[in-house]
Amino acid sequence: MSDAAIEADGLRKAFGQVTALDGLSLRAPAGSVLGLLGPNGSGKTTTVSILSTALRPDAGHAVVHGLDVVADAARVRQVIGFAGQFAAVDPNLTGRENLTLIGRLSRVGRRQARVRAAELLDAFGLSEAADRLVRTYSGGMRRRLDLAAALLHRPPVLFLDEPTTGLDPESRLGLWDSVRDLARSGTTVLLTTQYLDEADALADQIVIIESGRVADTGTPAQLKGRFGTVVFSLGFGTAADAETASRALAAAGYQPERSGTGLRIRSDSGSGALAAVVRALEDRAPDPVSVAVREPTLDDVFLTLTGTGQHVSTSQGGKAA
Amino acid sequence: MSTVTLAAPLGVADQGGRLAGRLTAALSDTVDVAGRNLRTLLRTPQALVFATIQPMIFVLLFRYAFGGAIQVPGVNYVDYLMPGVFAQSVAFGAIGTAVGLSADLRSGILVRFRTLPMARVAVLGGRTLADLVRNLAVVAVMVGVGFAVGFRTTSGAGLLAALALVVAFAYAASWAFTALGLRVSDPEAAQAAGVPVVFLLVFTSSAFVPLRSMPGWLQAIGSHQPVNALVTAERALVLGGPAAGDVLISLAWSAGILIVFGLLAARTYARMGR
């Protein structure tokens, strides 16, 4: 057995004619955060559902915490926590009742369920609302309660399906903190997201999926380095100055794009290439009045791998990346 | 946040253990789920109102508005009516099972339940157990309403036996609506699918009017369906006379419904994760 807490190999799943997973494999070392990134319908939820035993794969196999998710499903359920895409808490129970119910159904014992419920309500800032019906909670509070429900039996492996979808920015950052705390305390977390900044902020390793297959995988830095493009934006006083600079840069081998008084130059060799760009302008064109560098984001990676191939940064010219 | 996790999961008794232990655990899960459903019921007053006010309105309508026009030889109409109302109130109440279950399906709570180390049978078992408790309460209320509007019986034991038949039918019916609720992930659709079925069964039966007053083809339908069998058996018990045959027919219907739809519901639920 390897040190992977989650390991999936060749997972396939079809719903009628629709193929949701087409041979998906992934691996998350114990104590790491794995981000599953993909657009709607790419198979993220199906993957999480299979790994958390809510769904059976048609083919392939997966092991969580050393246990097969099909053959050992009952024991897998003892070591995982699961929070689905929609906060699956009961609106007609109080926050505390929700947690004690999940605790008892997680078989932690009657008293332990009460103790854990109180601890988690406190940890997630829900103590004051603990005895209010959940139907009076805000969206952010429901999500926090949902995450707390997934943690009742202290699972070493946690699955979160789009944990911050629909949350306001503050609640979102709060949830990020919770995930980081969990990872720090040794929990293995697999989270799906369609937000690139979320995967970037939380994941040690990212798996990008598209049409039920892995499109690429790597650390956030690796993926950005592999696919990302640095964009320099230079602003000039007049359009004529910009045109002069554009010609000077073209002569030096760059491919600047001018729009009005601005120029954009794409570089595949990192932001350090800015110095060379500025040197190419020296004595041949007026000095730029503004310089901006846009570091690669996961959007670049994402769109290159899964989208139409259109780069965000060059959308004006409509150039394919 | 140090309280959020520990290295080891909280101790869970190994599920591969003895059968007795697993049964106890399954029963405890069932009671927990039923408790949750009953709380939900108490906190959504409109569901309770639907379950009790609606049959009360039927009692008042048929006792005072229509009753005078309905002739049933040899018996006070109110004594004829109440067994029909008991059956009608649990038949309509059974729709609530489908509505509640489809709401759980839509909210995603059933997906969470599938990822917990709980007994799978507890989800459906808890739902039908809660509805059994609800039906007991509804039937008790309707008995009180019946006495208030002049219903009388010469046989207390007969009435209790009749109510037991009603509750047995109600339990079977809630499994039928469990099977329905699992197939529609939308409470409104569950309601829309359930109401016509229950309406047809109740109003083609002798719940409110004697079958003799219906055309022959309708009598043929009406005398071969579970609500009519239940009402017929109830009346035999409450009004006196030979009852054993009618009771057996009603019990056979309830047992048949329970077995067929119980298996269907269990199979549908088991396949949801496939």
How would you describe the overall organization of this protein?
The complex is a heterodimer of chains A (321) and B (274). Chain A is of the alpha/beta class and 321 residues long. Chain A has helices at 44-51, 73-79, 95-105, 110-123, 139-150, 169-184, 196-202, 220-227, 239-251, 274-281, 298-306; strands at 4-15, 18-29, 33-37, 59-64, 67-68, 80-83, 157-161, 188-193, 205-210, 213-218, 230-235, 257-259, 262-267, 290-294. Chain A is built from eleven helices and 14 strands. In chain A, the strands form three sheets. In chain A, strands 6-7-8-3-9-10 form a six-stranded mixed sheet, with helices on both faces. Chain B is 74% helix and 0% strand. Chain B has helices spanning 19-43, 45-66, 77-107, 109-114, 121-148, 156-181, 187-203, 216-222, 226-239, 244-271. Residues 1-7 of chain B have low confidence and may be disordered. The radius of gyration of chain B is 21 Å and the shape is elongated. By secondary structure, chain B is an all-alpha fold. The chains are: A alpha/beta (321), B mainly alpha (274). The interface between A and B is large, with 53 and 40 residues.
